[in-house]
Specification:
The complex is a heterodimer of chains A (147) and B (332). Chain A is of the alpha+beta class and 147 residues long. Chain A has helices spanning 2-27, 68-72, 108-112, 138-146, and strands at 50-52, 78-84, 91-99, 118-120, 135-137. In chain B, helix 1 (5-39) crosses helix 10 (236-261), helix 6 (136-167) runs antiparallel to helix 8 (197-211) and helix 6 packs parallel to helix 12. Chain B is built from twelve helices and no strands. Classes of the chains: A alpha+beta (147), B mainly alpha (332). The A-B interface holds A 8, 12, 15, 18-19, 21-23, 25-32, 34 and B 35, 37-43, 46, 202, 291-292, 294-296, 311, 315.
Chain lengths: 147, 332
């Protein structure tokens, strides 16, 4: 009999404790971010798709077309093509294609780049109707960013 | 040509009650979503209108524009009649509920009995709808609903009998009338009639949750196990009417708890008694009902039946005996 009543009391008490916890949460401020009306700034180590780094001196890319990123990529999603420019010592980048459908964001390309010419973008708002939307021309994107 | 004033009064109350039930169903869904949101530290609906206040309207339009499919193989009569069987008794119960000393559609002498008689039809609606759906989940749900309601009707009615013994009447207006004049006159604090009065209130409230199939006793509509239980095959407004009936039943249950235990339209400290106090108490109870839903997980079916047969029924019978003894000894 004592055990029976004891169980009822402790059970009822535990229910009230539970209600106490949820009502405390009810009056606390909300923690959700109202996307897309509010957006968080991504952390420095966030890995979006890669993009070319802007050279502050020339305004162009810093790529030396060594092809290290293309070799390092385990998925084979990077294609770099460059040309000899007359008068200049190094090769110039003509086209940098990233097939983001295959990319696993491992970052070996960024790690292996000797010129620090590529970095992770902070772009996560990606949506598109076709697969081809995700084949990025990074040189064109860099020019668009420069305006 | 003159119309009898009683006819006009009847029409006004009819329209008023249906509007009250429908408005409550719509805005309790809004309240439920808002409260659930804040308990989980979200915002809840906020896009449609200010604070999402037009959300119920959008939901209603969505439900009404959906096609009313009657699946092949269902019992055509039972399938169509079930939502109405849930909705109608809920609306009829409003007839006898006194919102204030003057605001009552029909002041029946057996108002209390009428409400609980209508409330028991609700189960029948769910059972018939589930049976008529020709769906295994619905049938499992029907079996659960019936055993659950049988189990919880007993302690609820025993508690109600206790209340009738204390107030010597089944007229709801008179029951509230006896509790006027401050919160210490409420039946909840009527400790001279029975020291177990708060416990009786708790039993009544728990049974009310179970009778209206609210979480944590929502075994009939256990989404994760039974899809939507009895409502599985109902599209559009068929489901909508069930839903309105459920919320109307919650309003009825909370109104009854307010009338029986919390003094109806009486002000706790004797200031301006009126319909606002009734609504305030009722909505506080409804807030608690929703608060409970978003606090506890669903019980198991055995846990549910054990709670009723092993705990609620013995305690409510003990309370009945204690109250009758106390009445005999202290109020000869």
């Amino acid at each position: 009999m004592i055990g029976y009543l004891n169980e009822i009391f402790s059970g009822t008490w535990s229910l009230f404790v539970g209600l106490g916890i949820t009502i405390k949460y009810f009056f606390k401020p909300v923690v959700t971010v109202q996307y897309p009306r509010e957006v968080l700034t991504m952390t420095p180590r966030f890995r979006g798709h890669i993009e070319l780094v802007r050279d502050p001196e020339t305004g162009g890319d810093k790529c030396i077309v060594c092809g290290m990123c293309q070799k390092a990529c385990p998925s084979g999603c990077i294609t770099v093509t460059g040309d000899k420019v007359e008068g200049a010592k190094k090769k110039a980048l003509t086209r940098y294609t990233l097939d983001f459908t295959k990319c696993s964001l491992c970052g070996l390309c960024v790690e292996g780049c000797p010129a620090d010419a590529i970095t992770f973008s902070k772009d996560y708002n990606l949506a598109g109707p076709t697969k081809e939307t995700y084949v990025f021309d990074l040189k064109k994107r860099l020019e668009e960013r420069n305006g | 040509m003159s119309v009898h004033p009683e006819v006009i009064r009847l029409l006004i109350f009819l329209v008023g009650i249906i509007a009250f039930a429908a408005l409550n169903a719509a805005y309790l869904v809004w309240l439920e979503r808002k409260e659930a949101g804040h308990i989980q530290r979200r915002i809840g609906p906020k896009e449609v209108g200010w604070f999402g206040l037009l959300q119920p309207l959008a939901d209603g339009i969505k439900l009404m524009t959906k096609q009313l499919i009657v699946p092949a193989g269902v019992d055509p009569v039972l399938f169509r009649i079930a939502p109405i069987l849930v909705m109608i008794p809920a609306i009829m119960s409003f007839v006898t509920i006194p919102f204030s000393d003057t605001l009552v559609a029909r002041n029946l002498d057996i108002g209390l009995l009428a409400v609980f008689a209508f409330a028991s039809v609700n189960v029948l609606g769910l059972l018939l709808g589930a049976w008529g759906s020709r769906n295994k989940y619905a049938v499992i749900s029907a079996a659960r609903v019936v055993s659950q309601n049988v189990a919880y009707e007993i302690p609820m009615l025993v508690t109600v009998v206790t209340m009738v013994m204390i107030s010597h009447t089944m007229n709801l207006t008179k029951i509230v009338g006896q509790q006027m004049g401050g919160f210490w006159h409420w039946n909840f604090f009527n400790l001279t009639a029975s020291p177990l009065m708060p416990v009786a209130f708790l039993i009544f409230f728990v049974c009310m949750l179970a009778e209206t199939n609210r979480a944590p006793f929502d075994m009939a509509e256990a989404e994760s196990e039974l899809i939507a239980g009895a409502f599985t095959e109902y599209p559009g407004m068929g489901f909508g009417v069930f839903f309105m009936g459920e919320y109307a039943n919650i309003v009825i249950g909370c109104s009854m708890a307010t009338i029986l235990f919390l003094g109806g339209w009486d002000c706790p400290f004797g200031l301006y008694p009126g319909v606002h106090w009734f609504l305030l108490k009722m909505y506080l109870l409804i807030f608690t009902v929703i608060w409970i839903r978003w606090t506890y997980p669903r019980t198991t079916f055995y846990g549910l039946l054990n709670l009723s047969w092993k705990i609620l029924i013995p305690i409510s019978f003990f309370n009945l005996l204690l109250t009758s003894a106390m009445l005999k000894v202290f109020k000869p």
